[in-house]
Structures are given as C-alpha cells and as structure tokens.
C-alpha cells in the first residue's frame, strides 16, 4: 500500500524541521532532504498539530496523486477537516488525482468560537510580492492594516544564487510596509527541493497547463506554510490574491474552492478579488495611486526582482494594462515607449515566450477593455497594436509557444525510468527544466 509517514516536527528557535518517509514506490517524488521552514518569530509556543501543517500542505497533494495514505503523530482538527475539503476540490478538478486518507494518533481540539467583538478586532495577513494581484488585495484590505507575508522557496528558491533576489524582495516589501506602518513576516522553506519537483513535473506535466506546484499544489502549499506564523501572531484572516477570475475555467492550484477551504485553529484563509479581472485590479490600483500613492511602483517581472526588465511578456502585459487604466507605465516601474508596441507584437507572433492558457485569458481581458472603452490611442503605434490585437488568434499564439520537443522527450524518459537510472540523470534533467519553471510560475 502506498503511504507517506510524516515525523513529528522538531523546533530550533524560529526554524522547524520534519523528516518524511515515503513507501518505496513513492521515493522518486522525494529527495530525502528533511522539510525545513524558517520564520522570523520563535516557534516554541506553537503546538505540534499546527507545526506539522506546512509539511502536510506539501506532502498531501503528492499522496493524492498516487492514492496514498498519510500518517502523522498529531494534527490540528480544523486543518484535518480542511484537507478533506481541499482534497475533494482538487480531485474534482484533476482526473489523475486518486485521493487518500490522513491518519493521526492525536487530533487537537476544535476551533474556538469567536464572538462579534473579537471578530471586529481580528488581525489579518496577506501574501504579498508587490505585483498586480497582491497590491490590489492590499488596496482592498488596507483598512485592516494586514501583515505582509513574503515566502522564499517558490519563485525565489533557496539556492544561494537566488540570495540577491530574496534581498531585493525583502527590501521592497519592507519599504512598502514601513511607508504604511505595517508589519511584515518573511518565511523561508526548502519545500520545493525536499519534494522532487522535477520528477513530479515529469509524471504530471502531461495533465496540467503549468507546473506541478502552480497547477496543483500552490494554494494549499503557500497558505499551509503560513500556519505557524499565523498562530504565533494570532492572525484570524489570511488572504491570498487571486490570479484568475470568475469565468476562467482553468485547472489551477489556487482557486476559491481550494483556498477558501484552507483553515486551522484560529485562522481562516481567503482567496481574494476573484470577482475582479486583472484589468479591474489595475483599475483599483489606479484609484489608490490617485488618492494615496502617486509614486507606487509594481514588481511583476518574470526575469528580475530588482525592478522590471520591460522586455518579458509579463512586463509588456502589465505596461499595456497600466495604460488602459490611465496610468503611465514609466511612472510605476516599467520602461515603456511607443516602439515597444511593435516589439511586443513581434514577440507574440514569433512565439518567443512560453505561454499558457492563463496568458490567453489575460490578453483577452485587455482586448475586451479596448473594445468596451472609447479611449483614444495615444499614438499611431498603440493604435496599430490594438487593431492587431482585435483580430489576433490568441489560441494560436499560446499553442505555438511552449517547451521544445527535447524537453518533452526528456520528461517522458524521466517518467518511465527506474529510480536508480532517474537518480543518475537527475542533475541534467533539473538543470534543463529550471528555466521553464521560472518563466511559467507567477502571473
């Protein structure tokens, strides 16, 4: 029987560590590295049933993909029920997920009741990067003065080569928070190296539009990492900004029917701003810029963390969206001039970027905004671009981009290789896949 055993976490100051023992048939999905998560507050007073949540949030989707059961010493009762609800949502979304059971020796007490007076004074937190989605969520909830939470271990890895990127993100979030008298929380984890993400991708990429984590694991995974932090800081509400919006039917790992089900004793998670399209989120930001933050800069680049390159698809898309919301991109972090419209069109037509269905929806959102407004283009170049976008076959632009055939062949080989053969080939496979992984994650 396929199974995964999660040992009791050990705590040293503000860091927790946890060993995971998969059954032999599942070992290829793990690197044998213990799961580690570091916070910026001590964890000694956090109960074991909460401490284990970050690890369960990463491990359980892998178990569900293989019909495996998970065994743990202790778990928070509220989170155990949440896992059942998240499993049901993910299994309904992905046909290849088989499900599984969670078995615990001890289940901690039920979630305490909260009266109206306590609820009115509730503390909140928000996963924050400074991009369009999380900035919009801050704007929507700024009256709550949410703690801004940033995580290293997803798009910014624990590799020393990413140290500078993490410094840039911390500095930017710290400055944003200081200007608004907000608290920050910084979390660092090796979750994506304790899991063998390359092998997960090799096995399951054929079923998903993005990567394993983006298409399956990241809503539960990112929120679960926050559990000890939220408990230590008595956070009642934890927000994660929506990537997509109502009407988009994509198999994505962060959606209302996943994130809104994530909870543990004392904390309820929320998938935020799902009712707004990306362009409408930019509208909300534009209103905030006009009323409170004229010098606000966004950070959305796919290739840099110390500003925006202005040349990747996401930078171009954000700059165009800012224009449509009445903001000048150069005033908010994006080098952009009229000649860039031609460069953008050429890059899209030539398939220079790896695009997924979510990018198609986002360009459709931009096209709809152009159609529904009577805004005059600011230049002939802008007019030409929007005229082209009006008739462009966005489905073709997405289908003609994508990973090279060599990547797909290697993925199939890894999927079918015996574990010893795969382990020998792993370094080359990991190096090959890293570039695509970094481009496709995040919106």
Automatic annotation (TrEMBL):
Entry protein name: Uncharacterized protein
């Amino acid at each position: 029987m396929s199974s995964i055993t999660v040992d009791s976490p050990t705590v040293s100051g503000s860091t927790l560590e946890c060993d995971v023992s998969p059954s032999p048939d599942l070992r290829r999905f793990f690197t044998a590295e213990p799961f580690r998560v570091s916070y910026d507050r001590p964890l000694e007073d956090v109960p074991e049933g909460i401490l284990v949540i970050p690890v369960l949030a990463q491990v359980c989707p892998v178990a569900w993909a293989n019909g495996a059961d998970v065994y743990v010493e202790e778990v928070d009762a509220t989170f155990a029920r949440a896992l059942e609800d998240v499993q049901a949502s993910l299994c309904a979304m992905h046909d290849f997920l088989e499900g599984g059971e969670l078995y615990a020796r001890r289940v901690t007490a039920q979630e305490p009741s909260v009266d109206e007076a306590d609820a009115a004074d509730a503390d909140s937190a928000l996963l924050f990067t400074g991009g369009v989605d999380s900035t919009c969520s801050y704007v929507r909830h700024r009256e709550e003065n949410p703690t801004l939470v940033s995580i290293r271990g997803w798009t910014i890895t624990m590799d020393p080569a990413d140290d500078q990127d993490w410094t840039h993100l911390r500095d930017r979030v710290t400055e944003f928070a200081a200007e608004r008298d907000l608290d920050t929380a910084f979390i660092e984890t090796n979750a994506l190296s304790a899991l063998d993400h390359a092998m997960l991708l090799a096995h399951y990429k054929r079923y998903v539009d993005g990567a394993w984590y983006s298409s399956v694991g990241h809503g539960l995974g990112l929120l679960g990492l926050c559990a000890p932090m939220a408990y230590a800081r008595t956070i009642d509400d934890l927000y994660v900004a929506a990537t997509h919006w109502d009407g988009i039917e994509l198999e994505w790992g962060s959606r209302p029917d996943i994130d809104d089900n994530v909870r543990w004793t004392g904390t309820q998670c929320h998938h935020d701003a799902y009712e707004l399209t990306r362009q409408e989120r930019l509208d909300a930001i534009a209103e905030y810029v006009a009323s409170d933050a004229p010098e606000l800069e966004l950070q959305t680049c796919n290739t840099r963390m110390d500003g925006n390159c202005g040349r990747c698809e996401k930078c171009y898309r954000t700059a165009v969206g800012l224009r449509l919301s009445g903001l000048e991109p150069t005033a908010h972090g994006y080098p952009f001039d009229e000649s860039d419209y031609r460069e953008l069109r050429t890059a899209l037509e030539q398939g220079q970027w790896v695009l997924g269905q979510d990018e198609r929806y986002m360009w459709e959102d931009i096209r709809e905004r152009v159609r529904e407004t009577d805004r005059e283009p600011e230049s002939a170049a802008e007019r030409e671009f929007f005229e082209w976008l009006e008739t462009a076959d966005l489905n073709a632009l997405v289908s003609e981009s994508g990973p090279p055939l060599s990547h797909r062949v290697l993925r199939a080989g890894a999927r079918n290789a015996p574990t010893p053969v795969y382990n020998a080939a792993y370094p080359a496979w990991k190096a090959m896949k890293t570039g695509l992984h970094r481009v496709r994650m995040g919106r």
